Amino acid sequence: MNLENSASYSNWIDVSVHIREGMVIWPGEAKLQIERRRSMERGDRGNNSSIHMGVHTGTHMDAPRHSIAKGKSIDQMPIDAGIGPARVIEITDKESIKAEELKQYDLKQGERILFKTRNSQRCWRNDSFVADFVYITRDAALLLADSGVRLVGIDYLSVGSPLDPDKKLPDTHQILLGAGIWLLEGLNLTTVNAGNYNLVCLPLNLDETDGSPVRAVLRFIP
User: Fold this and answer.
1) Each residue of 53-89: pLDDT tens digit?
2) Is 18 a catalytic residue?
3) At 191, which CATH number?
4) Catalytic residue among 18, 56, 60, 66
């Protein structure tokens, strides 16, 4: 769906990825398995499936508890944290999201910020993990935290890079989650242009859990 079509108030853009066996997952994450326990094709009276997956699979929310020992769990997320206006910012840097590039956008307290990078076009094309994806640097994370934004989203499986060699400093997750920012990871923003949107994104009500898969949709605000 292109931006012209999405400008209609009746049209929503699904920016979540399909959950399916064989999909790309974060290294070390639980392998996704979907089992058809009962099947009408096999003669059962109905279909019934079970699923085994990590809570950080596909498009998902990170709660503060993901990186902060006594942080809020996903069931403690305010409903309106994932519902309301969101700003999609397109990042030109092909390596990372840096504070220097973000300074021009005048980030506001309480904003929901979604970053569209080359990840959307590049990383979702296959089921192999892409380690050199565009991520949020520490300095950008500090800027976002100082700005008081409420939610930050990115178009691959993590806001931080697995290639970061300096493990002694707080990483991107710790900075953002420590500031009380809810994280929306694993977005596919391929068909979305920079601009203002309404966001609807809700996690499962998982008790005392550090994250949850979500269905995330956007609707353009003219």
Assistant:
1) 999 999 999 999 999 999 999 999 999 999 999 999 9
2) no
3) 3.50.30.50
4) 66
